[in-house]
Amino acid sequence: MQNITPTHARMKPLDRDVINIDHLKSLFPEAFIEGKIDFEVLTQLLGGAIDESEEKYGLNWHGKRRARQLALTPSIGTLRPRLEDSEDWVATQNLMIEGDNL
């Protein structure tokens, strides 16, 4: 079993923006110009999958954009097991997580 310390590479939060942009680059490399997304080219590549109509149904509320930004913010916390309260941690390595999903 490998010890994971706070400086270990697996302890760093994922940067979702970088991961998502890398996925887009692998799918649509021609939509990137000088490392930036050209939305006109991306729209052309996606063709009929783009909904450009003005009227749309959806759930909207004040602060929705900010809530989405907060949800995508990388976590700065790290879950660590409490070895003294664990049963057979070495063999199972199972975690019980309690908390608020907000």
Name the beta content range. under 5%
Nearest-integer average pLDDT: 80
First CA to last CA: what distance? 33 Å
Low-pLDDT regions: none
Q: Helix proportion of residues, in percent?
A: 25-40%
* Largest sheet: spatial strand order: 1-2
Order of helices and strands: HEEHHH
Number of strands: 2
Number of continuous helical runs: 4
Output the structural class. mainly alpha
Q: Note the main sheet.
A: 2 strands, antiparallel
Overall geometry comes to: elongated
| Alpha-carbon Rg, integer | 21 Å
Brief description of this entry?
The protein has 102 residues and is mainly alpha-helical. The protein contains four helices and two strands. A two-stranded antiparallel ribbon has the order 1-2.
Descriptive overview:
This protein is mainly α. It has a domain at 13-51. Helix content is 32%, strand content 4%. It contains four helices and two strands; from the N terminus they run αββααα. Strands 1-2 form a two-stranded antiparallel ribbon. A hairpin with a 2-residue loop joins β1 and β2 (36-37). The longest helix has 12 residues, at 16-27. It is elongated and about 55 Å long. 0% of the residues are buried. The mean pLDDT is 80.
Features:
mainly alpha; two-stranded antiparallel ribbon; 4 helices; about 30% helix
Secondary structure layout:
Elements: H1 16-27, E1 32-33, E2 36-37, H2 39-46, H3 64-72, H4 89-92
Antiparallel strand pairs: 1-2
